[in-house]
Amino acid sequence: MRKNLLSLAIPAALFAVFPLNPAYGEVHAVICEVMAHPENAGAGADDEYIEILNTGAESIDLASCWISGGSGNKQRLVPYTGAHRHGRQGAALPPMGIAIITTPRYSGSYGGFISRNGAADLVHMTIDGSRFLRYGFNNTAGIVLLLDEGGRALDAFSWSGDAGQGVSWERENPNIKSGTIVRRFGGTPGLAARQGLALENTRTRAQLLRRVVRRGEEGRLILQLRQNETARVSLRARDGREIAVIQERVSGAGVHEIPVILNAKGEALISGSYLVHLRICKSTGESTHETLLIQVAPRFR
């Protein structure tokens, strides 16, 4: 719950420093809510929390994970054993389970933790330390990364602006690690993840690790394909005109990391907004289309 002691800008290149682990395809841990400005002014940073959803098919050992603020500092996750503990014991987050991470000095302000199936799929964790990122979250701008044992980023969650006292920032659709972060009324640990579970059938198949790139740089696209699917990836102008083919054919079930080279006929694009277009085809002939917005910034400001 730090006030704006410094102006913290989240650089787009941060995702190049902490790339999603390309070999991590079978584990899906998503940060879906951060409470950076708790309502309980007396407890202050003690009542900040993070919410994580396991959208994968296997349990995740949260005791082997860390959180970081992106500047080299990190804190290991450990089971919470305080007076306000909720959920099952241990650090194993089951498939479709929800983890609430509070500080060790959590005061119990958010007693009504929400899970999908009572305590069976809710895990309460804390951090090795007294406050998140040592001093507590910055109210107005910040980033939290979830790291695996090797220090690779499994997910990243950033916010810009104060959501308001007692109001959290939430990922709009945790199932797709959507870059859209929204304000929600009040602190409702567990609700963001539950809403994500309700959106399971609307899950998209792709995400951009870098949504803003400078001229001459490349973006990175993460694409998930199922068995007997292929994809064609192209770059388009905002009016839908195809500018270049990024990759004519992508095939193979699993997660693919694809470089997005932003040029047209070998020449760098001018600054502005463009579309990364995907056509995903099944062996039956059925196809789906997805479009992601990418921004090209000037090389120099």
* Beta fraction: 35-45%
Count the helices. How many?
Answer: 2
The structural domain count equals: 2
- CA(first)-CA(last) distance: 32 Å
Pattern of helices and strands: HEEEEEEEEEEEEHEEEEEEEEEE
CATH topology of the largest domain: Immunoglobulin-like
The CATH architecture category of the largest domain equals Sandwich
Mean pLDDT: 79
How many distinct beta strands? Answer: 22
Uncertain parts: 5-26
Q: Which percent bin holds the helix content?
A: under 10%
Offer a concise description of the structure.
The chain is mainly beta and 301 residues long. The protein has helices at residues 14-17, 191-198, and strands at residues 29-35, 49-54, 60-61, 66-68, 74-79, 92-93, 98-102, 122-127, 141-147, 153-160, 168-171, 181-184, 206-208, 212-214, 218-225, 229-236, 242-251, 254-261, 263-264, 267-268, 272-282, 287-297.
Description:
The chain folds into 2 domains: 14-202, Immunoglobulin-like, CATH 2.60.40; 206-297, Immunoglobulin-like (Sandwich). The strands form 5 sheets. A 10-stranded mixed sheet has the order 10-9-4-5-8-7-2-1-11-12, covered by helices on one side. Strands 14-22-21-16-17 form a 5-stranded mixed sheet, with no helix packed on it. Strands 13-15-18 form a 3-stranded antiparallel sheet, with no helix packed on it. With 301 residues, the protein is mainly β. It has helices at residues 14-17, 191-198, and strands at 29-35, 49-54, 60-61, 66-68, 74-79, 92-93, 98-102, 122-127, 141-147, 153-160, 168-171, 181-184, 206-208, 212-214, 218-225, 229-236, 242-251, 254-261, 263-264, 267-268, 272-282, 287-297. The chain is built from 2 helices and 22 strands. Helices cover 4% and strands 42% of the residues. The model is unreliable at 5-26 (pLDDT under 50). The longest helix is centred in the middle third of the chain and has 8 residues, at 191-198.
